[in-house]
Recover the amino acids of this structure.
């Protein structure tokens, strides 16, 4: 017997414009790397409501929050040692290819 969660996910995937989008992975990865939702929706020609439903269905907000928490922890730790502008510049340049672990985050914001 199929669980209600699996049934709900299957219904979502059948109707979701993002699930069937050829650039689904890029949409998800860029959004989790702090790209603007409206900008992504326009770029990939999907609606904001489709984005919102997809983000909720796959708990991508939690993934994005994890990315943000990991980065902010390092900014706070290194706050006295490096300029905040340099750290923020590095974070903006960082384009995630997967959910980071702390090693990936440290590598991404390391300054020369």
């Amino acid at each position: 017997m199929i669980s209600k969660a699996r049934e709900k996910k299957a219904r979502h995937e059948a109707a979701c414009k993002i699930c069937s989008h050829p650039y689904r992975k890029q949409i998800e990865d860029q959004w989790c790397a702090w790209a603007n939702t409206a900008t992504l929706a326009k770029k990939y020609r999907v609606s904001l409501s489709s984005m919102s439903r997809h983000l909720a269905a796959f708990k991508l907000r939690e993934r994005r929050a994890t990315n943000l928490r990991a980065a902010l922890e390092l900014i706070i730790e290194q706050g006295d040692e490096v300029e905040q502008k340099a750290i923020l510049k590095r974070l903006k340049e960082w384009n995630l290819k997967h959910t980071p672990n702390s090693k990936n985050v440290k590598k991404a914001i390391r300054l020369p």
Notes: Residues 7 and 76 are 42 Å apart (CA to CA). Residues 60-77 form the longest helix (18 residues). The helical segments are 4-15, 24-32, 37-43, 48-57, 60-77, 84-93, 102-109. The chain has a mean pLDDT of 78.
